[in-house]
## 1
Amino acid sequence: MNVRHCHNIDDFRRLAKRRLPGPVFDYIDGGADDEVTLKRNTAAFDDCDLVPNVLAGVTDIDMSVTVMGRRIEMPLMLSPTAMQRLFHWEGERAVGRAVEKFGTWFGISTIGTVSIEEIGRTVSTPKLFQLYVHRDPGLNRALVQRCKDAGFDAIALTVDTIVGGNRERDLRTGFTTPPRWTPRSLASFAAHPGWTFDYLLREPFALANVRDFVTDGSSVASGVAEYIDKMFDPAMDWKAAEAIRADWGGPFALKGVMSVADARRAVEIGASTIYVSNHGGRQLDGSRAPFDQLAEIVDAVGDKLEVICDGGIRRGSHVLKALSVGATACSGGRLYLYALAAGGQAGVECALGKLQAEIARGMRLMGVTRIDQLSRDNLRWR
């Protein structure tokens, strides 16, 4: 099986599971505690139906939207995700080249594996940097300045990871970054020689944006929750977020907003955008799905800032439902990480092409030619 035989995100997931060692796949695939919220993020879309109109004349479709001051060719963005070179040896490089062909936002993480500077040089589409606030204020200031120097278009401050979620799959498999070579993990690595060859013989793995400040995660193996609890600043508050926005000076998003009260505070500190997100169900299990919370937040602040629905997206119809509720755009991480693991750049391009085609087909079947023609009038909840 290869990416040419993948027809949807679930197919890419199955192929990724075959190609990755168990601990690495489970890191992508897993969530917190009982994974209730992880499952709910996608299942929430099933409780809402689309109501199409016909005879609308839909020869020409325009699915472009403007997010954080940049026009993008489709209303689906790629959420920043960490440690991509664990999933495919090219990591963010492969994803960046794929995204350029679809003209949408590409986000990289503070704990990514390709540097801010390289992404700034090589990716021409809109670029977002996901900032995790560390305990070291010098590191935080340096990251913001590097984004300015590299020509990034926006920063998204992640606000839902002041402590690490209880990701039990990672605890069971002993997942660390970089991987520890233990008797428990060796069997899985040996069963995936392609991945193991790439990991051992290609560019050494490192967290490219923080390795000059911290050794954990690059030369010293660390679990994800262990890294978060040791390195991230649990004292981060609204005053700190406002100071970062002022220091950055450009389009500024808060990623991880789930309540109306927090959405209103985001407006007050001058954020231009919020991601309605629960971190892919990897932090607080039992929290609501972003899609379920979307209408409440759009009604409260949708006329004051942009609202992105982040999490659970697996189909073009999911995007259309979120846009109909009032989201400015949608964003997702696993939807392209599975594809990256399954086939590198070609996999990401294939997955994005499938989703783009689903959005266009869905718009035609809904009887709309532009995103702004979607509304709650074409939705019904079960």
Note: The chain has one domain: 3-368.
## 2
Amino acid sequence: MTLLDGKATSAQIKEEIALEVQKLTASGIRAPHLAAILVGSNGASLTYVNAKVKACAKAGFESTLVELSEEISENDLLNEIEKLNTNPEIDGFIVQLPLPKHIDEQKVLMAVNPDKDVDGFHPTNVGKMALNLPSFLPATPYGILELLERYKVETSGKHVVVIGRSHIVGSPMSILMSQKRTAGNATVTITHSRTKNLKEITLQADIIIAALGIPEFLTADMVKDGVSIVDVGITRITDETKKSGFRLAGDVHFESVSKKSSFITPVPGGVGPMTIAMLMKNTLLAAKIRS
């Protein structure tokens, strides 16, 4: 069993990005600039955004954090987005999700300029991705592709089962894995909460991408020997044996499933760190297009 180590791989990618930034700035081009809009004080979102800011500084990027009140009106938030859209110094930006309930998430994502949409969520970029045209790929699926590629996990002709159909991971992952690419050319089955006989389907899978948000859902009796597992889920579970009072669990029961796997991502330290690295890769691409 080989661990698909997202922590080590993302560190390597960030080093590659830092070298490219050095070359850009040495040739007189300004460093890439990534901005993030954070609405409210959601603890997980704050941690994630702070990690992005730190990663930017380490790679030589400029970064801007726009912190807004939980009570901000939808209209005022759209005005803040427009400021970033029209600011020539900003190469790419993200609006950290989730947003407060009174704000229409889709309306906000639609307001982001597709040329600065380094999260890859705008319909223009999703459409380009579906047609296999150059675009900003959604950061988490992009990170999974990089992990599979760099660890040389064979995907061509394999049966990939995606559990979960979200617009952020499941749906784009199913499209990308079926396309002609190094980590692609697979036959893909997408499953979800209404899928019948899920166990029968997962037992046929060569590769399983679990992204449904239910801790330790996928168990050893649901997978065949030699399967490759990508665990996208991360949930806090109460654990009184831990100093923090909780532990982090993925969508896969790691202890049992890892015994049958040829490749598997750990949680934490698997897909999570890759998301930030790919966000930076998209920002670097945006800066290069603009320069």
Note: The chain has two domains: 28-116, 140-273.
